[in-house]
Amino acid sequence: LGATFPQSSARARDRRSKGWTMAPPVKTLRRGYSTDETEEIYNALMFLANEFEEDNAPLQAVRCYEALCLKDLTLLPVPEARARVRLASLLLQYTDNVHRAKQHLETCMLLLKGVHGYEKLKCQTFSGLARCYRLFGRDVRMSWLNATTSGLDLARQAEKKYPDEREDWVTWQFHFMMDRADLYMVYCDFAAAERELAAGAALARETGMSEVTVAFALARLQRAIAQRGAGEGPGAGEMDAAKAAEDAVNALEEAVGEEAAAPARLHLHVLRTLGNLAAGNVHATAEVPKIVARLVKAIEGKTDDTIEEAHAYKWLPVRATIALAKLLTGESLRPLGKFSEARRDLEEAMDQCDAALKHLGVMPEGGDADAKAVVEQEQLIAEQRAAMEKEGSPSGRGGSKTSPRGKTKGKRSRGGKKADADEETEDQPPLPPKRQWVGSEIDLAPRTANDAKPYLHIRMLALQGLVGADLTATKLSLAAARTEQMRAMVESYPRTLRGYASVADHAEGQVLHSLGMHKEAAARFAAAAAAAESFGPDAMRDIAAVCGGLSELAEGSPGGISRALDLVRPVLKRHEAMQAAAVAGADEKTGEKDASALPNFAHQAAALFVSGYANIVKGDAAQEAKPKLSKALKLAHTQCCNHQLVSQSLSLIGTIVLDTRGGDLSQSLDMLQSSFTLSKAQEDMPAQLGCLDSLLRLHRIRGSDQEEQDALVSYHRRKASAYQSLVRAALEDEERLARITNGGIHLDDAEEMEVDEDET
Length: 760
Description:
Elements: H1 10-17, H2 35-54, H3 58-68, H4 77-94, H5 98-112, H6 119-136, H7 141-161, H8 166-186, H9 190-207, H10 210-229, H11 238-256, H12 262-278, H13 288-299, H14 304-310, H15 318-333, H16 339-360, H17 369-391, H18 394-398, E1 401-402, E2 408-409, H19 421-424, H20 446-472, H21 476-492, H22 501-514, H23 518-535, H24 538-555, H25 560-584, H26 601-618, H27 621-640, H28 643-660, H29 665-681, H30 685-702, H31 706-731, H32 734-741, H33 750-759
Helix pairs in contact: 2-3, 3-4, 4-5, 4-6, 5-6, 6-7, 6-8, 7-8, 8-9, 9-10, 10-11, 10-12, 11-12, 12-13, 12-15, 13-15, 15-16, 15-20, 16-20, 20-21, 20-22, 21-22, 21-32, 22-23, 22-24, 23-24, 24-25, 24-26, 25-26, 26-27, 26-28, 27-28, 28-29, 28-30, 29-30, 30-31
């Protein structure tokens, strides 16, 4: 049903604009029903609708409720409101008729305005309206806030009015508190979100509801992580929130057992991993992949309903839970150079997203929705025919035969003529209906957009991780292909994925830099920084500037050094300011720094590395470059656990020691050999070639045996030849490189785009 109801075609949009529903026209009832007849009709239709809902036939239930809402049937306000609330609930759950659902709920508000009592019905109305406003987006923020506030106030009044039903009204309060906190989170009002969540957590502890206590504790941890990610880390209280969430989950496990509390434990580990990765602290996630894999295995193959029945805590849908968990475990393994395991998890995350998007009827990379529907229909017909041939069709049993041309030879009529066409094809399978696929933002209706958004986001991040792993392992062509997938997603759904435009720009810059197109790469990194400044994420702004500085240095122009330093210096200043804020917010008793205020360790190490490299190119290797590179090495080794950055830092420091000539050559040799070992384990061929160059120089300075030097030269030639082959293969597709260089925008379409913008 979820695949056939969404109305994304032009005809469906026209129907919505006229206020029509998804149900076919209902026969007009005759006028002048008596009160008793009206009551009988109401009871019968409500009974039928309830039966249809229990039998999982929502379309038939919608027809019953629509019949009750006709003007020809005069109902009292409360019965009509009940029917409209149920109708709106079904429309929101199974269709994209959000506007129609909102109209029904607003009518309910008018019907119940002068009615005393019926607080539960009113709460259902407020809850449905809040959901509608959320789907509509930022333009109706105040309406969303008013609906949740009115519902919360009503639930609090009803708790005092009906003390015997306190549990029900407290549950409604939890619902509206969480909804209000969600609203504040969407608009980055983290202080207001924390107030709502703290109030909800206090009420949950008071009532002794352990499941609800866990929900609010985990929501507070998520708020702290989001606050830090938005650049408002000081005072976020991430460590305290993490401890409170751990205590709440432990209490739940004691109350209901580990198996029943497994989804809550998985939610906690996912959030802790997310927080550590956002901080660049990969070291803290060392044991997470094994734990998460065990917890994920416990829910694989289960449905959402099964989990809700078997477990005390329900979080995201199963596919979303698995996809997010796989994404985070893959990203925690990737910096360690465990690319096979990382790729496996990241590709599994993509598979989960693709399966969920297919169920929703959304093409992840866009495309021709009508053509997709035709192809799918043809596949279904072929599957039906194959199944009939395998099982044996009724016509085969009845004596009918199939001609070589595929036409059925049926029985002749009494007059000697063949049977009608309908009789000839009566054994053919029924034509399956076409699905209404979504291939672009314009076809993405509010409910489908809300359901698809998490999967689109996770898929983009999984592709970003795969691009990074492929480039480190010198799989250049594969990385370029994945980058085009990312660009296709952003261009197909620019509104939904506007916060990920910078991610696509950054991936394109990485590919171009790896192919030696440094000037073009610097331009893409600049575009990524600009997009991050406008739409986020804030963390991308810094890392894009750092990577842009590296491309400027590699480009080798006279002004490249100054441009690189101009890009990196603001990032280092921001990191210093964040360090100062962490010290200022230190705990008075323990003196421990405010961890939420600290800069991302990986970004800090990368900025120090590029700054040190710029100083080497500038000629200040010993005085300025070595201290910065040493600090970058320490961060990369102890906190980030980024083997690629460790390898590169060791290589540069070893080269500095080698260049001074007065340094310890044995120390330089150890560093260069360690760097080469790490880069070889990661299949990082450019890093290997850089290490081999320095090792050759070192052996010449030491006066090593000519045989050993010749062996190194031969090995270097083989590596360089293999690397050049990979680069040439990736450079063969010039059209793809042109698209990547221009951010997916075709130069031939630039003039047409300008015309469209003027018309708009």
